Description:
The protein is an all-alpha fold. The chain has a domain at 35-61. The chain has helices spanning 15-20, 23-32, 35-59. The longest helix has 25 residues, at 35-59. The radius of gyration is 19 Å and the shape is elongated.
Amino acid sequence: MSEQHRARITKSEDHPDLIKMQTEFALIESMLGSKTLCAMVLVGAVLFAAFGYFLYRMAGA
């Protein structure tokens, strides 16, 4: 890969900029602007928890 195509990481990045680059921050920011995305994330979290509970009950613990 040539030098001009590589992403350069500098040590002068500010902490707020590094926080904004996190996936979770971007998801929350997007959820604040979209009711549909909020509903989809909520439904997904409920289904994930229900599946975990199902597996727990099937394991007999």
